[in-house]
Amino acid sequence: MSQDRAIPTKFRAYTPAQFKDTKYWKHLDQNYHKTFENTVEVLPFRVNDYVLENLIDWSQWQDDPMFKLLFPQKGMLTQEQFHKINTARAAGNKSLTEAVKDIRSALNPHPASQTTQNIPLLNGEYLDGVQHKYEQTALLFPCAGQSCHAYCSFCFRWPQFISDPSLKIQAKEADRLADYLKTHPEISDILITGGDPMIMKAKALARYLTPLLEIPTVKNIRIGSKSLTYWPNRFTTDRDAGQMLHLFEKIVNSGRHLSFMAHLNHWRELMPQPVEKAIQAVCSTGAIIRTQGPLLRHINNSPDIWERLWEESVKLNMIPYYMFVERDTGPSAYFRIPLAEAHEIYRRAYQRVSGLARSARGPVMSTKAGKIQVEGVLEQKGEKMFILKMLQARESNLTQTPFAAKYSDSAAWIDELQPYDNAPFPFEKTEPFQAAC
Ligand code: SF4
């Protein structure tokens, strides 16, 4: 893959229909065209000039992990779903709309009870676009940040990107969150998420952040983003790049810790030259960059990839933070990796890196009960078991609680595991804390 790629300076994104008019469409064969056309009816698709030109190796696109990260693949829909879309497309718009709706609702659009258990109440009314799952942390989903510079084919946030408002979580402003924070001094961390908040103009993001900086109990601001590798120009050549960096400085100068949570899936994303400049620009504001992403079959399911990803991250001044287990939503069957295999990949990558890269925690499931880490596999009297730990819990007393589950070669999520001693799992015994006032 050539390193001398064209670096576009003006951001241009493509919808499925627009992508079909690009030169890249002709690189793909007819079989793939069918996969693309049927899958994008159900799952969101968006690419931009930068990722097309700099991340994908078009000479071997069928096997390229970056292509699989950005483009729909055969197997993301079941054969039955694929056939249903095919038939509905032939039958016309009304049938297609129905078929798409049916399939989407079967894809578990809101895993871990995101829209039922995590939305807080303020004066008896729901706070739209906010989630309060863990005692110290609230998530804010600004409505102007509900898209990304390109979409990842695995993303559990896929319902945010489709044109069904009933599936979206979004906040129009931060004033009500500020009111909620005044009555919840235990919340020290705000995670601005989406989509990708870096898709917003600096001015728009400032409107959300400014009221939050007035709350003295807010100590840490986190921003979840993949812009460093999907559109690094966001921090260098974009018209309001300077304003965005200035906003970061303002957060840091207010005495807050600013953590830029970079979504990363493969070391290849870090190779194009503009990425390093973007990282330097973000770090120059006093922000700290932490890296996280899920373990995905077909994309990064090897210790070699994680070893290099963590090492390159440290080299570029970023702190490896999480290796997640792919969530049980959307096309997760395509990416699914059993927990036993996931732990083995994590362990082998971890063994090969120095202590500085061992800050990465994994494999971790973000479940309804909290973040559960697979600590390892133990064998006692010829019987194997998983050792797990509540890394983070809705019920904060359970944080750091270890527990055991019966070993399984195939289980890929907590609800596929059985307690080792047939007693309930620790989080099954308690009531979660109430996010309300
Ligand atoms: S992983 Fe991040 S960048 Fe990718 S689609 Fe999801 S929110 Fe957007």
What would the average pLDDT be, to the nearest integer? 92
Percentage beta strand: 15-25%
What does the overall shape look like? globular
Helix and strand composition category = alpha/beta
Radius of gyration: 22 Å
Q: Can you tell me the CATH architecture of the largest domain? A: Alpha-Beta Barrel
Q: State the share of residues found in helices, binned by percent.
A: 25-40%
End-to-end distance: 55 Å
Number of strands: 15
Task: Give the SSE string.
Answer: EHHEHHHHEEEEHEHEHHEHEHEHHEEEE
Instruction: Give the ligands present.
Output: iron/sulfur cluster
Largest sheet: 11 strands, mixed
Would you mind describing this structure in some detail?
Helix content is about 30%, strand content about 20%. It contains 14 helices and 15 strands. The protein has helices at about 15-20, 30-40, 50-55, 65-70, 80-90, 95-105, 175-180, 200-215, 225-230, 240-255, 275-285, 305-315, 330-335, 340-350, and strands at about 15, 45-50, 120, 125, 130-135, 135-140, 190, 220-225, 255-265, 290-295, 320-325, 360-365, 370-380, 385-395, 400-405. An 11-stranded mixed beta sheet has the order 5-6-7-8-9-10-11-12-13-14-15. It has a two-stranded antiparallel sheet with strand order 1-2. α2 (about 30-40) crosses α5, α5 packs antiparallel against α6 and α12 (about 305-315) crosses α14. It is globular and about 55 Å long. The relative contact order is 0.10. The site of iron/sulfur cluster has 10 residues, from loops. Iron/sulfur cluster binds near residues 151 and 196.
